[in-house]
Amino acid sequence: MKIAALVKQVPDPNAVRFDPRLGELVPGIQHVVNEYDLYALEAALRLREQVGGEVVVASVGPARDALNRGLAMGADRAVAIEGEGLPGDAWVTATVLAAWLRRERPDVVWCGQETSDSGTGSVGPAVAALLELPLVSNVVGWEFRDGRFEIEREIEDGHQFQEVEPPVVLCALSALPQPRLPTLRGIMDARRKPVERLAPTELDLGPDALVPLVRWEGLRQPVAKAAGVVVQDVPPDEAVERLLAFLEARGLLG
After folding, report:
1. What is the pLDDT of residues 180-237, one digit of tens each?
2. What secondary structure letter does DSSP report for 200?
3. What residues does each domain of the chain span?
4. Confidence class for position 120, pLDDT limits 50, 70, 90
5. CATH 3.55.10.10 corresponds to the domain 2-202
6. 8 A C-beta contact, residue 120 and residue 127
7. How many CA atoms lie within 13 A of 63 on its CB side?
8. Cβ–Cβ under 8 Å, residues 196 and 67
9. What is the DSSP-derived secondary structure letter of residue 188?
10. Phi-psi bin for 158: left (phi > 0), alpha (psi -120 to 50), beta?
């Protein structure tokens, strides 16, 4: 079975700092693998250990550390799709990944439910739509038996159980088994595993494929909220008088 695991390298959420004077993030922030993607990769590795085959870890945009982490955890090979303007927005990322996946034709695509930097949760669903594959999101448990996945997914008011056959796109949440830590042997083996580097021009993409639908307009500091006044444990008439006095003092009464 061929299993694709999609990963993204993101700023470390615990190290992000905003400089309000410059209106931008403090430079030099360490980057890490998106947390949900690590759970997806762990699921991909466990599936390979059960049924055999290979795990291909892939990313769009700068992600050398993320791909190395995937190889050290046990992925068989890595694919880095790099070029100007990548990773772009969620639509560009999904379009590029779908073009690569059409060529690879994996049986299963594992990805994180969302990323910590943008949090759209739309790349996995967009990939499934572009490839016309079934999608199961919010995956918190799974079993593979008799050629079918038995999926447990988290929904707003509980859990839902579904069955689906490959090929399929599965989006992982952090309730899945904890991602394994790379061993020293895994880190050494990762250096000998193949890493394919592709430019968008090498994929079957249209002329507008890399045009983002969402544009980055910069950052701003939230406006500080004024402290409120709480009136409680007083008779209703007195509470009304206090409210009127508060509004009158600030010129809010006509």
Report:
1. 999 999 999 999 999 999 998 899 887 788 888 887 777 676 776 767 778 888 898 8
2. G
3. 2-202
4. confident
5. no
6. no
7. 30
8. no
9. H
10. left
